């Protein structure tokens, strides 16, 4: 059973850009890396998979359901690239906002907030404003928001771009733990080094088209 299955998925912006004819299978429980240079179409693909934008053509199934199905709302976490909110909100405000987005009750929201803050190493920071956070902390709180509903499937768009080497390592360890706990993780990056140590499957996208998908070790053997 696949967590993500797409068939000819295409999104163009007035006929250009975007991504084209993406047919992709992500097995359940995989830590899947999508590698490609800036402008390759990684964000476009993920935005379609979380129903932020609609495909021009093609289809996809997410956790066995068609795109946009409300039943998967609480099962899918998403950290957009450049996660950014009003500076005057606190980390706790952001978590409450996302809890509402995911339909959590106030009790679940409070309990999950302290769990995810611990997971991303931000205990003690929830009552400070986002404006006082470093870029790396903003990415961490973004990751905490995406983890709130205990998602079965987690999409992360360049989640470590603002982190220093230690922060990157911590996030990679967290992703490996999530995968070990059964979460399917879909990770976008333009850096091979961000993917090679953690991902078990990989796809490469270039100019909007998939040019490789498969086992990470097979690719290394071909190279
Ligand atoms: P990546 O995430 O790999 O950097 P994107 O999905 O952001 O790539 O972009 C893929 C291509 O689509 C690029 O050529 C980009 O300029 C174009 N593109 C992305 N978003 C838009 C948009 N809203 N309008 C027009 N072109 C866009
Ligand atoms: P930004 O304002 O930074 O561009 P978005 O408006 O794209 O970010 O999304 C903000 C947050 O809302 C994301 O971090 C994500 O947790 C949540 N979110 C938005 N759309 C979805 C979706 N379709 N599925 C799950 N979570 C979503």
From TrEMBL:
MF-aspect GO terms: ATP binding; ATP hydrolysis activity
Start and end residues of each ABC transporter domain: 4-223
Keywords: ATP-binding, Nucleotide-binding, Transport
Record bears the keyword Transport: yes
Keyword Ribonucleoprotein: no
Record family assignment: Belongs to the ABC transporter superfamily.
Protein's name according to its UniProt entry: Abc transporter
Source organism of the structure: Heliobacterium modesticaldum (strain ATCC 51547 / Ice1)
